[in-house]
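Field: sequence (string)
Field: structure_tokens (string)

Example rows 1 and 2, in order.
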Amino acid sequence: MGSSKTAAVKMAAKGARRGGAVTMGAQSALTLYDAFDHLATMVAVVETDGVCVFANAVFEEVLGLSRRSVMRESIYDWFVDPTLLKDIVTAVANNEFATSRLQAELKRNLHVLTGDPLPVQVIVTRMDLTAHVLIELVEIEQQAKQEREERALDQAQANKELIRNLAHEIKNPLGGIRGAAQLLQMELESKSLTEYTQVIIHEADRLQLLVDRLLAPHRRPHLVGDVNIHEVCERVRSLILAEFPKGLKVWRDYDTSLPEFRGDREQLIQAVLNIAHNAAQALSDRVAAGDAVLTLRTRVMRRVTINRHLHRLALLLHIEDNGPGIPEAIRDRIFYPLVSGREGGSGLGLTLAQTFVQQHQGTIECESEPGRTVFKILIPLP
């Protein structure tokens, strides 16, 4: 993102030099700073007194206003408390220093001041060869989200290496143990003793099955085709209701405007099913009481950054339940292999779900508190 911003700044400065003008009209500013529309962050260019001469497309979306409605307006009207920002813009404009950072709260809408302000990190930079100042705003939550995505990717890669190494270390001796138990069973005449060899064989088979399940997503080929996310959700809904026919309601809240996309339908069904099935099992007390609710919700997101890449459109799928929530002790580790909050659980369902979603260049996150747990799947759309 830094290199893109630098290139855009240089392009804008170069254009200003060619134009030979320091003060520009609205139309010329729009043309001059077009490169900023390709950034994933909010960018504005202001004069030394804070008057806006350009705001990029992301800024429009966040403010909820058209670009022309904010042109020639004071940038300080956009902030809850602009005092520090005013001082910094003045200092940068006077070349007391080239750039500076601060945290501030951005108003959601200049004319309809409703809703909570948006916490942002503000980066103020002096633009060479012009009398303008570049202001970039990064949502603090977005920055934290990107950091979580990077940690999740690193953890998924570490999990993959761990699983491969673990499988290699377990499979060979496990086969030897099972084979030795079978040979021993053939030599034993006492039925009471053969029961022990049967235990060895059974447990060896169980461990082999566990290893195969761990390796399954990395072995299976990625079968790509056209996917309708609502067909995926309906398949999962029918499977869940077949297993929990009483006491559980599965609500649908679909955005039917969502387009089809290229992906592996069976992998996505398995990912959503793993999450929904875990939720249904966690709702056992509410199922017994008859007030368990599982919600499948789809939405379209615009200009979304996923795994450091900006996408024009993305699919957002919420899988929400009204259960007791994920135990706080494991909340940060639920996607790790073999971590389960349920007695008798394998701890593989969410690990596999994360793997399948990441194979679609998407991300998966979870928010949980007593009475509400929601898994959010985000997948880029064409």
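Row 2 begins here:
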Amino acid sequence: MIRVLIDANVLISFLLSNRSELLVSRAVMTALGDQAHLIVPNELLEEIRTVCQQKPYLRARISTDRLDQLLETVAAVGHLPASPLPRLLPSGRDPKDDYLLAYALMEKADYLLTGDEDLLVIGRLQGVQIVSPATFLQKMNP
């Protein structure tokens, strides 16, 4: 079973989409399915909640019920890492993303699913493939 960590930007895009045929929706549903083991750090859940509640654009388009439902589903389906982050984190172009890289390595993720160019430019980090939703779907459904 593959191990997947999904970046907040992908999950927020999923919340904004109302069409299941969109790439981001299909990628998230695949990661939530029985082919994958989802890694869900608490920091990720907090980031999604904070961003959705603080940004007026998102607050106007994502209901609290829809946000709560997604966070509950992701937490229930996924594995919440028990290990705290190490003091020395791997570093990418954006320090706010470093916790994702650290959890991806600690939890031996196969994929880090993101739309963030600062992460996508890395491509691969010690066996973790950093991919877009489209690439993830291609790899999952060759």
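free_text_note (row 2): The CA atoms of residues 93 and 118 lie 6 Å apart.
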